[in-house]
Task: inverse folding
């Protein structure tokens, strides 16, 4: 029995040992740089000694010095807890995994009308937009540097090389830098499989090429996707330069890599950072993007991030820190109609980017996927679920959900189907996103889908065909808020309204990778110069490029001033009247959907007044959140900063361009009727235009009373600041009630607008 016991003990030890190894994960360690002991001359040596004090085996993955102070390393939870109590350690935060938030927009945004508004002294070509994403396909014409002068002397970046990425060929005066960050990813996921993706800045996914060319791509005539959306494709800021930082890989985007890329991007000299990625919501001292963005803003860099694609549910946002410009998605006035014509003569409009051989004009047999399968989820057209003898030669109606929309088409095609109708369910409502299908296919909204199903189930011999309508422009109403665009309220800080604004994010044409086809599926053999895709990933670089234009036109403006200009000039109503619609409900959207409204670049160039925000304002904001000294130091890198115990801090004192007011529901009250509660917010406006007098007007909901004091502000010179106070009064309402309004300051030429959002909890 003794040998058996020894064997069991050995197996137990091996099991426990492997479990311990498996429990190791990457942590980001924030350090108080000013507290380095005098025995050390280099911070890296101190970081290494601190790490060695808890683990002889661990090694530093990255050392951070620009947007954070500290390092990242693989540790067990026990080692992380011990390290947290070492001298000079501010915090030890587990690494997060982030996901990507996956032409005509310049005209739609009025950029063709704004050229005359940009000063002749414009320094836009000195602005470098840093894009953190999946890399770049540098051969695309969107990175042509014709007409560009020398790279700014302030640029310190490099063009890193790889097996398939040669600096001499890849980078130029337009694409001025390219780096990749994989150490954090490889520490968690193992070595990159170079048969599947490039261990270099090269983009094998397409997402990064699309976002960077959207932000600042050069103008490319005769651009299109398979004949759709033909015209000149151009980024928002054609004069700005681009630097790419590849942080996203097949298995995701890891926060240790993202923080290292932000660190390097600021050191390199980027003036704008664009991040079309996000994770869950967490406190700012635990959010690597929020930490990196804070210290980027401290250095004068504008940071814009995607709001997320988890809409239309409430409180689904990512990237909600107030120093980040959080961008939701709307449509533009261009569409790609494809019509379903049924055997009974009725027809329904959908969307498609199919460009192959058309279906016959005479209808084909139509079948519901749920009736052509033995699988319980066969209605979704998942791989291997359709029966060929049931679908061969027929048009198949598939329900949207679970697997990729274009993959459903592959499933239908592989089973012998002649075409596909992709029907939305309640989860997606009337939201339509066009795809470059490989077989004749169209996507229809929930109402049309239900009508087609009703015909299909009631007719003994159902038939249909699909006709493709090409590209249509001038589609109205537009914009509308995309159903997928993540919504408020802000679950981390309800008193800060998010998203900040919306920009074009549906069916956007931009440059694409040469590694995969427009569907992104391995089975798609096509290769295209451009692609049309949707997401807040697409709306974010629109705002990043616009920020570059504003930075070039007004180089003395702070990131807060640039953000304010974009927000206070955004519009919430259509020119002909009526509020911007939400495609998810068919009703007017609210500030929880679109923030300040839809971006309006020509007006943002000349906003009249701005709400500027200083670093001290943000520090006071962190004090108002009751963050500890260590937590504030983790965000701000200021280990010697302490909140003033004698000062009354309030989140509502942050000089933000929008207002979110949270009222408490009276205890035990099911509705209104209790005494009114009054909340006061103070704001300061800075004149960035000509002298003038601005008067306030308020559109308030019936649930609240809004008073502005003073209601008139006179400015005698540019740079002058004036403050005002807004009193919000409201009686108790049922918990969960929300109401909205708008405050506008106008001198007769400019309108400086702020959304008002009220909640009762």
Result:
């Amino acid at each position: 029995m003794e040998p058996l016991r020894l064997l069991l003990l050995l197996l137990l030890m091996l099991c426990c040992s492997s479990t311990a190894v498996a429990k190791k994960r990457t942590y980001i360690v924030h350090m108080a740089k000013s507290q380095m002991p005098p025995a050390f001359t280099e911070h890296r040596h101190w970081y290494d000694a601190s790490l060695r004090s808890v683990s002889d085996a661990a090694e530093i993955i990255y050392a951070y010095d620009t947007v954070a102070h500290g390092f990242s390393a693989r540790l067990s939870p026990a080692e992380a807890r011990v390290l947290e109590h070492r001298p000079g350690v501010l915090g030890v935060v587990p690494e997060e995994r982030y996901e990507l938030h996956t032409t005509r927009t310049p005209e739609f945004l009025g950029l063709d009308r704004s050229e005359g508004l940009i000063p002749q002294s414009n320094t836009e070509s000195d602005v470098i937009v840093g894009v953190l994403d999946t890399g770049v396909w540098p051969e695309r014409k969107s990175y042509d540097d014709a007409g560009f002068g020398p790279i700014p002397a302030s640029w310190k970046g490099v063009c890193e090389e790889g097996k398939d990425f040669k600096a001499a060929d890849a980078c130029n005066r337009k694409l001025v830098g390219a780096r990749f960050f994989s150490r954090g990813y490889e520490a968690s996921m193992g070595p990159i499989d170079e048969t599947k993706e490039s261990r270099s800045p090269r983009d094998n996914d397409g997402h990064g090429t699309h976002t960077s060319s959207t932000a600042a791509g050069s103008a490319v005539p005769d651009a299109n996707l398979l004949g759709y959306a033909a015209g000149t494709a151009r980024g928002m800021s054609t004069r700005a330069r681009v630097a790419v930082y590849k942080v996203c890989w097949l298995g995701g985007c890891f926060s240790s890599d993202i923080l290292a890329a932000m660190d390097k991007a600021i050191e390199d000299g980027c003036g704008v950072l664009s991040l079309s990625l996000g994770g869950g919501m967490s406190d700012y001292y635990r959010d690597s993007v929020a930490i990196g963005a804070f210290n980027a803003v401290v250095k004068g860099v504008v940071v814009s991030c995607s709001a997320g694609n988890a809409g239309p549910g409430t409180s689904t946002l990512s990237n909600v820190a107030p120093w980040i410009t959080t961008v939701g998605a709307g449509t533009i006035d261009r569409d790609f109609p494809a019509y379903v014509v049924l055997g009974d003569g009725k027809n329904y409009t959908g969307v498609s980017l199919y460009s192959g051989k058309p279906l016959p004009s005479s209808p084909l047999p139509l079948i519901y996927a749920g009736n052509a399968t033995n699988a319980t989820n066969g209605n979704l057209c998942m791989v291997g679920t359709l029966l060929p003898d049931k679908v061969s030669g027929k048009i198949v109606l598939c329900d949207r959900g679970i697997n990729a929309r274009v993959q459903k088409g592959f499933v239908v095609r592989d089973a012998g189907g002649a075409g596909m109708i992709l029907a939305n369910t309640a989860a997606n409502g009337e939201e339509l996103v066009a795809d470059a299908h490989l077989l004749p296919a169209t996507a229809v909204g929930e109402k049309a889908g239900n009508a087609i199903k009703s015909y299909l189930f009631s007719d003994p011999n159902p038939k249909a065909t699909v006709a493709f309508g090409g590209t249509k422009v001038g589609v109205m109403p537009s914009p509308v808020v995309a159903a997928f665009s993540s919504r408020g309220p802000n679950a981390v800080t309800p008193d800060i309204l998010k998203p900040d604004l919306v920009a074009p994010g549906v069916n956007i044409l931009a440059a694409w990778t040469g590694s995969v086809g427009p569907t992104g599926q391995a089975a798609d053999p096509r290769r295209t110069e451009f692609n049309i895709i949707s997401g807040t990933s697409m709306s974010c670089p629109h705002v990043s490029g616009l920020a570059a234009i504003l930075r070039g036109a007004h180089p003395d403006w702070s990131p807060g001033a640039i953000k304010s200009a974009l927000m206070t000039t955004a519009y919430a109503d259509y020119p002909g009247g009526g509020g911007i619609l939400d495609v998810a409900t068919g009703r007017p959207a609210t500030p929880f959907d679109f923030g300040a409204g839809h971006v309006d670049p020509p007006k943002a160039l000349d906003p009249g007044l701005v709400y500027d925000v200083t670093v001290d304002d943000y520090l006071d904001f962190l004090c108002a959140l009751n963050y500890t000294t260590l937590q504030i130091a983790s965000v701000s890198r200021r280990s010697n900063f302490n909140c003033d115990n004698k000062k009354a801090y309030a989140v509502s004192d942050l000089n933000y361009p929008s207002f979110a007011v949270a009222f408490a529901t009276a205890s035990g009250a099911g509705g209104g009727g209790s005494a009114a509660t009054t909340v006061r917010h103070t704001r300061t406006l800075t004149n960035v235009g000509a002298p003038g007098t601005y008067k306030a007007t308020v559109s308030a909901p019936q649930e609240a009373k809004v008073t502005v004091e003073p209601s008139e502000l006179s400015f005698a010179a540019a740079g002058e600041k004036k403050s005002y106070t807004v009193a919000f009064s409201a009686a108790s309402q049922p918990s969960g009630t929300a109401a909205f309004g708008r405050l506008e300051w106008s001198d007769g030429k400019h309108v400086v607008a702020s959304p008002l959002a009220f909640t009762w909890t």
